[in-house]
Amino acid sequence: MRPATRGRGTIAPVNEIDVAVEGGPGRRLVLVHGFTQGPRSWDALVAALDAPGEIVRVTLPGHGPPDGRSASVRLPFEPAAAAVAAAVEAAAGPEPATWLGYSLGGRLALRVALDRPDLVEALVLLGATAGIEEPGARAARVEIDERLASGLEGRGVERFVDGWLAQDLFARLPRAAAGVDERRRGTVEGLASALRLLGAGAQEPVWDRLGEIGVPVLLMAGEHDSKFSALAYRLAAGIGDRAGLSFVPGAGHAAHLERPESVAAIVNRFLSTLPAPT
Q1: DSSP element (H, E) containing 97
Q2: pLDDT tens, residue by residue, 173-210
Q3: What whole-number distance in Å separates Cα of residue 163 and Cα of residue 87?
Q4: Of 213, 233, 240, 260, which one is least surrounded by beta carbons within 10 A?
Q5: Nearest Cα to Cα of residue 34 among 182, 159, 187
Q6: Residues 6+ apart with CB under 8 A from 31
Q7: CB distance 153 to 124 below 8 Å
Q8: What average pLDDT does the structure give for the chain?
Q9: Is the overall model pTM greater than 0.85, yes or no?
Q10: 216 Cβ partners below 8 Å, 6+ apart?
Q11: Which domains does the chain have, with CATH numbers?
Q12: Are 213 and 114 a contacting pair, CB within 8 Å?
């Protein structure tokens, strides 16, 4: 794959996105992590699921250790969603699955549901949004992410991760549950590219497409995550009757890390309402 220039990306062959498939048979659950995280960030949640079935864990473009394939992938947001969908299809098969995405992973999972509905039987979004509509606000977010990327390039991954987790957004996240070691295994180049290419300011907002979603959707946020709780309400209004809302008691933004048993209980109830997998 050709090296990507800043702000640009290349289309990744499906074998360049790391996808791990485990468990089964039963319902397929595709897990899409947040920024700086990785596939192990779902361990506590998966352990608390009832009859988890087949678990598919994606490592997003620009993420993972330097010896992983995803770390070297450079893709803009919409091609990244397409590449993730294709990689999951290639690794696990074309059967539809429930997709669960957190934050960045939620934005990508939402895009997959819109562009590849054949792969999605249900959707769970935790701490997610459909993008930033106002052009000025999008441009401001791009500038913020550029400063973050430049700071990462100057400070290194370890110091950047410590600063990232010091945000008010993660005030309720115990360090022991934050997956610091996995986050620190990321590369400077990969994570900087993710900030520039996959940030909320870099994606096309899809608020006007939410009515296209024809599958059951569970929208979640931590009860103390006021920003993303409000966004969950707005997502539900746009999706309509197919959407349900649930707020995780005692949790902030990273609810799956802060309260994995509570998140799993909510997901278990949602999954129990779906038709049995064939």
Answers
A1: strand 97-102
A2: 999 999 999 999 999 999 999 999 999 999 999 999 99
A3: 32
A4: 240
A5: 182
A6: 39, 42, 45, 46, 55, 56, 57, 58, 100, 101, 105
A7: no
A8: 94
A9: yes
A10: 122, 123, 242, 244, 270, 273, 274
A11: 14-272 (3.40.50.1820)
A12: yes
